[in-house]
Automatic annotation (TrEMBL):
It is an enzyme of class 3 (hydrolase). It comes from Succinatimonas hippei (strain DSM 22608 / JCM 16073 / KCTC 15190 / YIT 12066). One of its GO terms (biological process) is mismatch repair. Residues 18-208 form the RNase H type-2 domain. It is found in: Cytoplasm. Endonuclease that specifically degrades the RNA of RNA-DNA hybrids. This is Ribonuclease HII. The keyword Nuclease applies. GO terms for cellular component: cytoplasm; ribonuclease H2 complex. Manganese or magnesium. Binds 1 divalent metal ion per monomer in the absence of substrate. May bind a second metal ion after substrate binding.
């Protein structure tokens, strides 16, 4: 089967002239930890080679590109929502709220925000456009994808150091067989997303919870 070629993205305004930011998130699927978003304005005079969907890059390449983005971008911001906020809002709205926080934390006003996916941030006074497969089609979104992914991975590595028996460095909180095997042996941590179906099931079975720092 021939590989599907994505249509090139056509900017509604020229990012060489206008301030255009890209936004993306990481961590919608995992059972544990924050959902993390990033917002990036690239500098046309300092192009970054190799930007792509963070999921298609090796960890080593992502880390190297994250450093370049932070050094060369006109501005970037990180935003996140905690597991408790995810449980209260649901993961879709928490992801959009994390993007809003990332934009605010960028401390720079844009004329247009390009968002990966098909949803826009509700009640946000900024021109926005959703771009399906934007992390592979729009460099600003690719850069945001890379920053969000590397930041979330760093948080999971830190959690792994605190609780090495849970294996967070390996499965990154995703619902893998190895992760479920651990959860059947150990109590839940309070940084789990309690409304996610597998965690709800464990709670219903009487699984205990340890409060994390």
């Amino acid at each position: 089967m021939a590989k599907k070629v994505l249509e090139p993205f056509i900017y509604p305004i020229d990012p060489q002239v206008h301030l255009v930011c890209g936004a993306d998130e990481a961590g919608r699927g995992p059972l544990v930890g924050n959902v993390v978003a990033a917002c990036v304005i690239l500098d046309p005079s300092r192009p970054i080679s190799g930007l792509a969907d963070s999921k298609k890059l090796s960890e080593k390449k992502r880390d190297a590109l994250a450093l370049q983005i932070k050094e060369n971008a006109l501005a970037y911001g990180i935003g996140q929502c905690t597991p408790k906020e995810i449980d209260r809002m649901n993961i879709l709205y928490a992801s959009l709220e994390a993007m809003r926080r990332a934009y605010v934390n960028m401390h720079k006003t844009c004329e247009l925000m390009l968002i990966d996916g098909n949803k826009l941030i509700p009640d946000f006074p900024l021109a926005m456009q959703a771009v399906v497969k934007g992390d592979a089609r729009v460099p600003e979104i690719s850069a945001a994808s890379i920053l969000a992914k590397t930041e979330r991975d760093a948080q999971l590595y830190a959690l792994d150091k605190q609780y090495p028996e849970y294996g967070f460095a390996r499965h990154k909180g995703y619902p893998t067989a190895a992760h479920f095997e651990v959860l059947h042996k150990l109590p839940l941590l309070s940084c789990y997303r309690m409304t996610y179906a597998p965690i709800r099931k464990l709670l219903a079975e009487g699984k205990g919870i340890i409060e994390t720092i």
